[in-house]
Amino acid sequence: MPDTEPRPEPHWFNWPNGFTFLRALLVPVILWLLVQDTEGDTLRWWAFGIFVFAAWTDSIDGWVARRYTGVTRWGQLADPIADKLLIIGALASLAYIGELPWWAVSVIVVRELAVTLLRVQLVRRMGLVMPASRWGKFKTVSQVVAVGAYLWPTVPGTLRELLLNVAVGLTVWSGIDIAFRAGRLARDRPAAYRDGTP
């Protein structure tokens, strides 16, 4: 007879969530390297390498969670937040040193804050954790590529600007997409959940 009892959720303190913490902790390191890089490109290359490593951990923590430790609700919430901190922190660092326009950072920050608040409300009121969408993944990849292009010392300025504009466009579009998906989830949920009562 198959086991129909639900499996307990893994403990939140595990390797995948450790990678998530690390991703967030590397943001001030990138900022420090960019601010200190006044002569030559040595520290700039370090900033690029650390950013690539941090972005790579986003794939590693998900793979480890699905294959070995199990996915936790805490991890599903913390993982996208750590991604946002990494991207926004790197973009703000580049804007701070004058290499990237603040308007682009502002658009991305507003979108990410709105989506995060929407996710939190879905969890609190209806117990729903909305998984990442296809457009959300495209958005993340475009942002990582754009930041990487700005951190790479020899990338032409016109290419950097093009990649940044693509990232901002996908950021806005993916925000619209997730708002529509959240609306559909809320409509499909039983009415008892809409007032926060499961």
Short description:
With 198 residues, this protein is mostly helical. 75% of the residues lie in helices and 0% in strands. The chain has helices at 15-25, 27-36, 42-69, 73-96, 102-126, 134-151, 157-188.
Report the C-alpha radius of gyration, rounded.
Answer: 19 Å
Listing every helix as H and every strand as E from the N terminus to the C terminus, the arrangement reads HHHHHHH
Would you tell me which CATH topology applies?
A: Four Helix Bundle (Hemerythrin (Met), subunit A)
Number of DSSP E strands: 0
CATH-defined superfamily: CDP-alcohol phosphotransferase transmembrane (TM) domain
Any idea what the shape is?
globular
Distance between the termini: 30 Å
Query: How many separate domains?
Result: 1
**CATH class descriptor:** Mainly Alpha
How would you characterize the largest beta sheet?
none
Q: Based on helices, strands and strand pairing, what is the structural class?
A: mainly alpha
Q: Average the pLDDT over all residues and give the rounded result.
A: 78
Proportion of residues in β-strands: under 5%
Low-confidence stretches: 1-9, 192-198
- Helical percent range? over 70%
CATH architecture designation:
Up-down Bundle
Q: So how many helices?
A: 7
